[in-house]
Design goal:
The chain is of the alpha+beta class and about 475 residues long. It folds into 2 domains: about 160 residues, Creatinase/prolidase N-terminal domain (Creatine Amidinohydrolase, Chain A, domain 1, 3-Layer(aba) Sandwich); about 290 residues, Creatinase/methionine aminopeptidase superfamily (Creatine Amidinohydrolase). The chain has 16 helices and 17 strands. Strands 6-5-4-1-7 form a 5-stranded mixed β-sheet. A 3-stranded antiparallel β-sheet has the order 9-10-12. It has a 3-stranded antiparallel β-sheet with strand order 13-16-17, with helices on one face. The chain is globular. The mean pLDDT is about 95.
Length: about 475
C-alpha cells in the first residue's frame, strides 16, 4: 500500500476542514473508512474505496481505519499490518508514519477505539460489515446515512454545509480529475473509426484514465443505446448510422471525481435529424451555463433547460403548442425525464448517500411532477459549488409507448413527425461547472460541444491527446 506524499498545502486544508467542523458542532465524531468487500471468496476483493466523509477529513484512502475528531483535533485508529501480509502486499507504512502524513494529533491501535465512543456521532458507511462494527461499538442501531437522527443528524448537516462548496485543495484535485476526463473522451472519439464495438471505445477511454494513475468515478457508460440512461453493457457492434453516447469520468487517487458526457456519430457525421436534435440539446446546455450565477436557483436552471428543449421540439414539429404550457404539463419530460444535473466532489453524485438532505435545501421537498421528480439538486447556487449541467433527449419506449402518456399527450406530440427521428435514441451533453463569485468556470471546457467540432474530433482532425 503506497500513498502520495502529503503536501503542506493539503495538510493545511485538512486542518482547516477539521476546525470548521469543530466550529459547527460541540460533540466528538468518529468516522470509519470502511474495508474491502470480497467477491466469491475472501482473498478476491473488489477495489477498495474509502468513505468520502472519512477522506474529506483524513486525506488518505486508508483501509480499516477510524478517525476521532474533537475540537479541531484528529486521532487516528488503525492497526499495523501483520508481518505475514508483506508476502502478498509488500511493506506498508506503520501507524505513526500514516499519522504524520495526515497531520494526526495522536495515533492508536483499533483496540483502543472503545475509549472514544462516549457521546460520539458518526455517519453510517456503505459496507455492512463495517456498519455492524459501528453499531456494536457505539451500542446503538445506525440507520442508513440518508436517515440519521440525533447527533448523527447534526453531524450530517454540518458535513453537508462544509462539502457543498470546495476549498483550494479540493479544486486542485477536481481540476486534475476533469482534465483527465476530457482527455479520455478525446481518446474515445479518436478510437471510434477503428473500434468494432462499444467495448473498443470504452477500452480507449478507460486506458487513458488508468495511464494517469486514476480510476473511474462510476461505471462507464459507452453505448449506442443512449436511451438507457445507465447502460453498462458494451457488446453492441458499431453501425455507421448510430450515435455513441459516452458518459465517463476519472477519479483521482484521493477520490475526487470528474463527470462528462458527449454524444457523437459513429460515421463521423451527424445525420440531419441527429444534428437537429443535437443542436436542441446543445442550446439548452449553453443557455443553462449562461444563466448560472451565485444566488440563482438550480431548479430554475433545470426549468430553463426544459423550456429550451420544449421550444426546440416545437420548432422541429415534434411537440405542438406553446413551450410554456408544454413545460407546465411536463410534455418535455417525455424526452428529457431526468434532472439537469447534480453536485460533484468526492463522489460523482456528491453526498448522495445523504439523499435529499444534501441535494435539497432545508425546507424543500422533492416534487411528484413527472418533469421534476428526478431532480437531484434543489439549492441556491453558491460560489465554490461544482455541479453538472447535462440536458438530454431520449426516446425511451417504456415512456413513449405508455398508454397513460399516449392518452395524456395525444394532442401535443406529433407521433408521425417523431418517427422521422428514429435514428436518435439518446443524446446527452454534460459538463462540470464551477460557480465562481461572478459567474461560472467550466472545468471541462477543453472538450468541444459544437457538432462540427465533435465531427472533426471523431474524424481525427484537431485531436491533441495529452
Amino acid at each position: 500500500m503506497e500513498y502520495s506524499p502529503n503536501t503542506d498545502f493539503l495538510a493545511l486544508a485538512l486542518r482547516q476542514r477539521r476546525q470548521k467542523l469543530a466550529n459547527l458542532i460541540n460533540f466528538p465524531v468518529l468516522l470509519w473508512s470502511g474495508g474491502k468487500i470480497s467477491r466469491n471468496y475472501p482473498a478476491n476483493t473488489f477495489p477498495f474505496r474509502a468513505s468520502s466523509h472519512f477522506l474529506y477529513f483524513a486525506g488518505l484512502p486508508l483501509e480499516n481505519a477510524v478517525i476521532y475528531l474533537k475540537d479541531g483535533k484528529l486521532e487516528l485508529f488503525i492497526d499495523n499490518a501483520h508481518p505475514s501480509k508483506t508476502l502478498w502486499q509488500g511493506e506498508t507504512p506503520k501507524r505513526e508514519e500514516i499519522a504524520n502524513r495526515i497531520g494526526a494529533d495522536a495515533a492508536f491501535p483499533l483496540s483502543d477505539l472503545e475509549s472514544r465512543v462516549r457521546n460520539a456521532a458518526t455517519i453510517a458507511v456503505q459496507d455492512y460489515s463495517t456498519l455492524l462494527q459501528q453499531s456494536q461499538l457505539l451500542d446503538r442501531p445506525l440507520p442508513i446515512a440518508k436517515s440519521p437522527n440525533g447527533i448523527d443528524l447534526e453531524l450530517t448537516k454540518a458535513i453537508i454545509s462544509l462539502r457543498l462548496t470546495h476549498d483550494r485543495a479540493a479544486l486542485a484535485e477536481l481540476r486534475q480529475a476533469t482534465a483527465v476526463t476530457v482527455e479520455a473522451h478525446k481518446a474515445g472519439m479518436a478510437a471510434t473509426s477503428k473500434a468494432k464495438n462499444e467495448a473498443g471505445i470504452r477500452a480507449a477511454m478507460e486506458s487513458k484514465i488508468i495511464t494517469e494513475n486514476m480510476t473511474f468515478a462510476y461505471p462507464s457508460i459507452v453505448t449506442t443505446r443512449g436511451e438507457i440512461l445507465h447502460n453498462e453493457h458494451y457488446h453492441h457492434p458499431l453501425q455507421k448510422g448510430d450515435l455513441l453516447l459516452a458518459d465517463v469520468g476519472a477519479e483521482t487517487a484521493m477520490g475526487w471525481a470528474g463527470d462528462v458526457t458527449r454524444t457523437w456519430p459513429i460515421s463521423g457525421k451527424f445525420s440531419p435529424t441527429q444534428r437537429a436534435i443535437y443542436d436542441v440539446v446543445l442550446a439548452a446546455h449553453d443557455a443553462c451555463i449562461a444563466k448560472m450565477l451565485p444566488g440563482v436557483e438550480y431548479v430554475d436552471i433545470h426549468l430553463l433547460a426544459a423550456q429550451v428543449i420544449a421550444e426546440g421540439l416545437v420548432d422541429l414539429g415534434i411537440l405542438q403548442g406553446q413551450p410554456d404550457d408544454l413545460v407546465e404539463m411536463d410534455a418535455h419530460a417525455l424526452f428529457f425525464v431526468h434532472g439537469i444535473g447534480h453536485l460533484i466532489g468526492l463522489d460523482v453524485h456528491d453526498m448522495e448517500d445523504f439523499g435529499d438532505l444534501a441535494g435539497y435545501q432545508e425546507g424543500r421537498v422533492r416534487s411528484n411532477r413527472f418533469g421534476l421528480n428526478y431532480l437531484r439538486l434543489n439549492r441556491t447556487l453558491q460560489p465554490g459549488m461544482l455541479v453538472s449541467i447535462e440536458p438530454g433527449f431520449y426516446q425511451v419506449s417504456g415512456i413513449l409507448n405508455s398508454q397513460k402518456n399516449r392518452l395524456k399527450y395525444q394532442n401535443v406530440v406529433n407521433w408521425d413527425k417523431l418517427e422521422q427521428f428514429a435514428d436518435v435514441r439518446g443524446i446527452r451533453i454534460e459538463d462540470d461547472v464551477l460557480i465562481t463569485e461572478t459567474g461560472t468556470e467550466v472545468l471541462t471546457a477543453n472538450l468541444p460541444t459544437h457538432a462540427e467540432e465533435i465531427e472533426q474530433l471523431v474524424n481525427g482532425c484537431g485531436i491533441e491527446i495529452k
